[in-house]
Every structure is written in structure tokens, then in C-alpha cells.
Amino acid sequence: MSFTVAIDGPAASGKGTISRAVADHFGFAHLDTGLLYRAVGRKVLDGVDPVQAAKALQAEDLQGDDLRTSKVAQAASKVAVIPEVRQALLDFQRAFAMRSGGAVLDGRDIGTVICPGAQVKLFVTASDAVRAERRYLELSTKGQDVTRDGVLEDLRARDKRDRERDAAPLVAAEDAVVLDTSEMSIDEAVAKAVAVIEARI
Ligand code: C5P
After folding, report:
1. How far is the CA of 34 from the centre of ligand 1 (A)?
2. What is the CA radius of gyration of the chain?
3. What is the predicted ipTM?
4. Residue 129 belongs to what H/E stretch?
5. Structural domains of the chain, ranges and CATH numbers in brackets
């Protein structure tokens, strides 16, 4: 039997950290679906057509530290508005969600489009200032040349594009539990997510 946990939210809301932690806690597989769009975005920066890149995506394309740069993130959110790109990535995500033993998928449209029947849906948010500070610390710790203002501007541009697009926009599913992590430590946020999931198992 499959058991799917859908975790959506804007950039740097904490959804990735929470997803990895709950997958670990319950022994579920985890898919960071943002990586799929980032891998397509990276190929487009190299001159490949976005739809062709999405159709030809391979597991090894999901590797590499440069997937985590702001440049690739922006490219990802630009390819993510293209319905054919989203369509090309759909089957892989749904098959992952249906694997036995449980799966956690995090992204923007998991609870609304990819897995509308997920047993648990979480929508993770945090204030712009908190999200920008978290992403700034993450990127600067990795040695990337970023400023706080630049990171905030990037996040806002990406969120706007993600929220306003026609194809699978970023929005909380009607039946999602909203988790605002602005004032929470990682441990508190993970404990809340674990409690929500435990109540549904
Ligand atoms: O989650 P992450 O920040 O890595 O995602 C990068 C970009 O990929 C997002 O800004 C969004 O445009 C796109 N994305 C999406 N749908 C998903 C996951 C990511 O459109 N399920």
C-alpha cells in the first residue's frame, strides 16, 4: 500500500528540511521535486530546449552543487511556467509517490496537481524576511557570493512567478494543513509535521 505525504510551499520556507526529516523519521522515500525543475533550468542555461530537456531528464542530471545556485533557481522557475515541461515530469513524480513503503514529495503543486489524493498535505510558509535570511545563510555558508538584499529579491521574483503562473501555480490545497515556520526552530517544525502525519497513519 502506498502512503503519500505532499509538502508544498514557497522557496526557503523550510519544506525541504522538514521533508527530509519526516522521511527519515517514518522510513519513507523522499523526492525533492524542485531538483527536477532545477535540472531542466540548468540544461536550458546550456542552450538546450526546455521541453526536450524535461523529456530526456536522467537520474544523473539531478546531481551537482551548481543546481543549488540562485541562477539555476531562477532558470528553474522560468521553465516551470511551461505546461509541456510540467507534463513531461508528471509520470515520474506520480510513480515515485505510489511506491510501496511510503513517500514524501516536496514542491509547489504536489498536493494540488501531482498527488491530489495524498494521505497528508502540508503547506509550509514563513515570512519573506525569515526565508531570505535562511537562504542567505545557506548560500553564503556554501561560499556563494550573495547579499541579503539580492537573495530577498530573487526569492520574491521566483515566488511571484510561481504564484501567478497559469500551470499548477503555488497555492495551498484546500485540505492542506498550513505550517508557518517563521517563529519555529527546525525541531519544532519537524515535530509538528510528524504529529500531523502520525494522526493519519
Ligand atoms: O523547490 P526549489 O526552490 O528547488 O524549486 C525551484 C523552482 O522549481 C521553483 O521556484 C518552482 O518554479 C519550480 N518548481 C515547481 N513545481 C515543483 C517544484 C519546483 O514549479 N513541484
Report:
1. 4
2. 16
3. 0.99
4. helix 128-141
5. 4-197 (3.40.50.300)
**What CA–CA distance (Å, rounded) separates 70 from 167?**
22
> Distance between CA atoms of 93 and 116, rounded to whole angstroms?
12
Say which residue the cell 520556507 belongs to.
13
> Could you read off the pLDDT of 122-178 as tens digits, one per residue?
999 999 999 999 999 999 999 999 999 999 999 999 999 999 999 999 999 999 999
Q: Does 143 appear as a known binding residue?
A: no
- Distance CA(10)–CA(50), nearest Å, equals 22
Tell me the pTM: 0.97
Is 12 known to sit in a ligand binding site? yes
**What does the DSSP 8-state code read for residue 176?**
P
Q: Which atom of ligand 1 is nearest to the CA of 106?
A: 21
Maximum C-alpha span of the chain:
47
Residue 72 has pLDDT above 80, yes or no: yes
